[in-house]
Structure formats: structure tokens, C-alpha cells
Write a structure and sequence with these properties.
Radius of gyration: 21 Å
Structural class: mainly alpha
Number of helices: 16
Largest sheet: none
Number of strands: 0
């Protein structure tokens, strides 16, 4: 019963992460006006949050394996509550940026520990559980900007929105404090091959894990590049702002539908096959979003890119946690770091290429990456089958 409560609570927190993960985006125009800052200064929020998230994913994974999931989830909730509560009363933009680092750190803690927790309490159906968790995040991301935008449109200040988010994080911290969490498994668990060590070095040197790292890097890099630049790309084609904004919603709609679909099939079909199917679909749909000129064709490409991107990271997490069940926090943290790196490097390169040769050159980088993703997925399936053959030979 407690496992069901833990799962439901984790799903609720992940929905909240989706809803307020980009809370600053609709609030940013008011913040720029109140602080009297330039667009360049306002844009510093993004690297500030990334620095915190990157550090939080790494530290949160290691700490949750050593100390347990509960303290890391609790610390993450409290850090985000503190950051959200302090920003509205900050007089300096530099202090706001420092607090966004703190919020990112807390987010990295919560994300990593919750993913590891859900994997552990649903070890019999990791693929379904991880895709459900990230599907719920997709629902939050889909409705979050609408909710925050509506609240701000009702003459509610951005400070009130941040304070409301702080209250929500404080509530979840209180819930985490009173819940009982399962003990972290410390003895080796056999899963296809004997796990004699769960050190970070062993994880990083595992050939399948390295491929899963690439899957997460490529997925989030190409996805963030598409979502981050699609509005500007549509504007360059002289389409309306509303049409450009709707593309982001279409992407997250596809992402959400895809994750709930993968929930049904991931464990049944197999992790590597799901990743390959998602990679193939991405390689077909992403070029349509990048190179088409008609809005309906672009919309189809964006929706199906989200649909096929959906299962890559959650299924990769389930696969990695199955390989290293005693190091779920470490593997989750490392794959979260891969996501952060992809989201930082690839959109920046797309912008550089777009400035040099136009958006089709820029988004063409995403096309190259998703084609490479197919090669990574094929290699993953080959390595898995080779490992299965070796195991059968040893057993026979």
C-alpha cells in the first residue's frame, strides 16, 4: 500500500515540476520591467538554472544511492521552496540569478531521486512506470504555461505566482518528511549479468550505458533545439506568433501521448526495441518539421517528433536501472546530466548555424543527430542480443 502512495505522490510532484518548471517564462516580461534589465541579462536565467540542475543531477544521484531517496527528495523540495519564496523580495538581479541556481540544484535533487525511487518500487514494470512518470510531466508542461499565463492575465503579480509555487513545494516537502521510503538496495542484484560493483566508473565504462547516455543527449538536444527555436523559425517564414506558439503545444501533446503509449508496450516489447522504434520515427518526422514550408506539414512533423521522442529517455532510464539496480540514483543522475548537456549545447549550435545559413541549416543539425540516433539504437540492440547469446552459451 505504501508503495502505491509513494508512486502517486511522486507522480503528483512530477506533474508540479512540469507545471512550474518554466514558471519564469510567462513571468519574464514583468520581471524585466520591474528590475529594469536588458534581454541579455534576463536570458542569464537559463544558464543559471542549468548550472544548478547539472550539479543537482550529479550530486543528487550519488547522495540518494548513499543516503537514501527520502532526504534528497526532501532537500530538493525545500531548496526550491526557499528559492521561489525569496525571489519575489529580491532587490538585485544577481541575487535572483543565484536563487535560480538554487532552484536548479533542488530540481536536480528531486528529479534524480524520484526517478530512482519510481524505478525501485516498480522493479517488475520499470518501462511502464518510467514512461508514466514522464508522461505526467508532459501533461504538466502542456498545461503549465496556460495556467500561469491565465493567472498573470488576471492582474496577479509575478511575485504572487512565485510565492504560490513556494507554498506548493513546501507542502510536498512536508509530505516527503512524513512518508516512509524503502531502504536503498545495497547488495548486488543479478539482471542479465553479475553486478560485482556499482561504482560510477563501472557504470560509465559499460558499453550499453554509454549508448543510453548518447540517446538521452541526442534526444534532449534535438528536442530542445526544435521547441526552443520553432517560434523564431515560424516567424522567419512570416507565420503568426500564435501559430508558432501552438507548435510548442503540439510537440508536448505528441510527447505526452507517446509516453502513455510507451507505458503499455515498453516492458512487453523490450527496452532496446522501443528505443529503436522511437529513433526510426524521429528520423522520419524531424526532417518534416525542419525542412517543410507549409504550416500543416511543419505541424505534423512537430507533433510526430514529440510522439516518437517520447519514449527515448524514460525507457533509457528503465534500461539503465535494470542494468545497475543498486546504483539507480547514479545512473539516473548521469542520464539527467546527458539531458542537460544536450539541452545546452545543441540549441546553441542550432542558433549559430541558423545565423550563418538560415534556420533550415540550423535545424538540419537536429536531423543529423536523429539519423545518428538510429545508428546508436541499432548498436544498442546488437549489443543486447550479443549479451543474451553469451548468457545462453554460459548457461548451456
Amino acid at each position: 500500500m505504501n508503495q502505491k502512495v509513494l508512486t502517486l505522490t511522486s507522480y503528483s510532484v512530477y506533474f508540479l515540476i512540469g507545471v512550474i518548471g518554466l514558471i519564469f517564462a510567462p513571468a519574464l516580461p514583468q520581471m524585466i520591467e520591474d528590475f529594469g534589465i536588458t534581454l541579455a541579462a534576463a536570458g542569464a536565467i537559463f544558464p543559471a538554472k542549468f548550472i544548478g540542475s547539472f550539479a543537482g543531477a550529479f550530486a543528487g544521484g550519488v547522495l540518494s544511492d548513499r543516503l537514501g531517496r527520502k532526504p534528497v527528495v526532501l532537500w530538493g523540495c525545500l531548496l526550491q521552496a526557499a528559492g521561489m519564496a525569496l525571489i519575489p523580495s529580491s532587490a538585485s538581479w544577481w541575487l535572483v540569478l543565484a536563487l535560480f541556481v538554487l532552484i536548479g540544484l533542488g530540481g536536480g535533487f528531486v528529479n534524480t531521486a524520484l526517478n530512482a525511487l519510481i524505478s525501485e518500487v516498480n522493479s517488475h514494470r520499470r518501462g511502464a512506470a518510467m514512461n508514466t512518470l514522464h508522461g505526467i510531466y508532459g501533461v504538466g508542461s502542456l498545461v503549465g504555461p496556460v495556467i500561469v499565463g491565465f493567472v498573470l492575465s488576471q492582474a496577479v503579480s509575478w511575485q504572487t505566482v512565485f510565492r504560490g509555487a513556494a507554498v506548493l513545494w513546501a507542502i510536498f516537502a512536508a509530505i516527503a518528511a512524513v512518508q516512509s521510503y524503502p531502504q536503498v538496495t545495497r547488495k548486488p542484484v543479478h539482471s542479465g549479468e553479475p553486478e560485482t560493483s556499482t561504482s560510477m566508473g563501472r557504470v560509465l565504462l559499460h558499453p550499453i550505458f554509454l549508448l543510453l547516455f548518447l540517446v538521452s543527449f541526442i534526444y534532449n538536444g534535438a528536442a530542445t533545439g526544435l521547441v526552443g527555436w520553432i517560434n523564431t523559425y515560424m516567424d522567419s517564414l512570416n507565420f503568426s506568433l500564435l501559430l508558432g506558439s501552438s507548435m510548442v503545444s503540439l510537440f508536448y501533446l505528441g510527447l505526452t501521448v507517446g509516453r502513455f503509449t510507451c507505458r503499455v508496450y515498453a516492458d512487453r516489447v523490450g527496452f532496446s526495441r522501443i528505443i529503436l522504434l522511437c529513433a526510426l520515427g524521429s528520423a522520419v518526422s524531424y526532417p518534416l518539421a525542419a525542412f517543410a514550408s507549409h504550416p500543416a506539414a511543419i505541424a505534423s512533423g512537430v507533433f510526430f517528433a514529440g510522439l516518437f521522442f517520447s519514449g527515448l529517455h524514460p525507457t533509457g532510464l528503465a534500461y539503465a536501472n535494470t542494468l545497475f539496480p543498486t546504483a539507480a540514483g547514479t545512473t539516473t543522475g548521469l542520464l539527467s546530466m546527458a539531458m542537460s548537456l544536450g539541452a545546452t549545447i545543441v540549441p546553441w549550435l542550432i542558433g549559430l548555424l541558423a545565423q550563418w545559413g538560415g534556420f533550415q541549416w540550423g535545424l538540419g543539425l537536429g536531423v543529423i543527430l536523429v539519423v545518428g540516433l538510429v545508428a546508436v539504437a541499432v548498436r544498442l540492440l546488437v549489443l543486447e542480443r550479443a549479451g543474451q547469446e553469451s548468457a545462453r552459451e554460459i548457461a548451456g
